[in-house]
Amino acid sequence: MNNNSINDEMIALYILGDLSDEQAERLDELAIADAEFFERVGSIENDIVDRYVNGDLSEAESGRFESHYLISPLRREKVKLARAFQDFAAKTLSAEGLAFDSSKAGATSKIAGFFSSLGIFGGAQPAFRFAMAAAAFVIVAFGGWLILRNLNGGLKGNEVVSNISVNRIEPVVQPSPRTEVVEVPANENQRPGPTPVPTPTPKPPTPQQSKPLIASFVLSPPLRGTNMPSLSIPAATDRAVVRLELESGDFKAYTAELKEVGGGRVVWRSGRLSTARTGGVRSVNLSIPAKSLKSAIYSITVTGLSTAGEPEIIGDYPFRVVR
Question: How far is residue 126's CA from residue 25's CA, in Å, rounded to a whole number?
């Protein structure tokens, strides 16, 4: 299965959870390996979100959207963002006293959705274009604030991208003290004094052994329609510490497996992992040898272990490593 053999209708069914497990798994793999297909899925997802907010989905499509798509807190945030845009735009138009004339060519009785709003500015009235541009600016700024808040430890939106912190202690070397000799002018009536004895130069202290260089990252649960995060790992890094934020923290323990996308080669496996809570979000921490990560696309598969020890895959975290 390749990008060109998949039509938009099949991608819509994929987003609404209406494909078989085998078909959905194939599209998952293609979305990770093919950046062009990943963007295509995101574009169709944005259109579906706008149509749902506008009430343009059929009853059956709305039911699948609510029972499958909205089970994710991240996706619910995306719908809230689109709905907030609609409310803001409607209030702006009402305050400006703007209205549409349905008899005019190109007129519409509804406000365009958040993700498609930039495409409608060209043919609208100047005052309407200004109002919509202001609405889009405010909502995009709000979305950027949500993403920045997520990167600082609270999972409220859909971004994910990564934070990098590098800690290293450099050895401190004390300068060697030097002995100064003062020359005294010669005097016939004065006997020469004793010759100064130089002070031995102490050896510099032994440099402290440098601590391991660690790069740390945060990955949020993947959300269709967002860019794949890139992790930049410095060449001298010893370990990469990755915090995976979980959508569900209901399992007794977890395991994680790191694979190289494409060949499917398993690069690293964890032992049993316990969760920690940061900013109200459950997460697990992985410590991966940096030498195992080359410049490539990887995916971390997280499996939850029930009380009875039964494994259940709960999510995949794709990312790109840049070295």
Answer: 47
Q: What angle do CA 261, 267, 271 make, to 5 degrees?
A: 125
What Cα–Cα distance (Å) separates residue 2 from each residue in 27, 28, 36?
9, 12, 11
Residue 193 Cα to chain centre, angstroms = 76
Residue that the structure tokens 């890139």 belong to: 230
Q: 34-82, pLDDT tens digit by residue?
A: 888 888 898 999 999 999 998 999 998 999 899 888 888 888 888 888 8
Going 19 to 25 to 26 to 32, the CA torsion angle's sign is positive
Check residue 30 and report its DSSP letter. H
Q: Which residues pair with 266 in a beta bridge?
A: 259
Using CA atoms, how far apart are residues 229 and 266, in angstroms rounded to an integer?
A: 20
Q: Which residue has the tokens 């130089």?
A: 198
The order of strands in the sheet holding 297-305 is 230-232, 311-322, 297-305, 253-260, 266-269
Separation CA 6–CA 9 (nearest Å): 8
Distance separating alpha carbons of residues 81 and 30, to the nearest angstrom: 28
3-state secondary structure of 9: helix
Distance CA 250, CA 152 (A): 24
Element (H, E) at 52: helix 35-54
Residue 286 CA to residue 212 CA, distance in Å, equals 16
Instruction: Tell me the HSE value of 236 on the side-chain side, using a 13 A CA sphere.
Output: 7
CA-wise closest residue to 111 among 125, 90, 94, 126:
90
Average the pLDDT over each of 152-161, 181-190, 257-266, 293-302 and give the range with the smallest value. 152-161
Q: How far is 163 from 245, CA to CA, in rounded Å?
A: 13
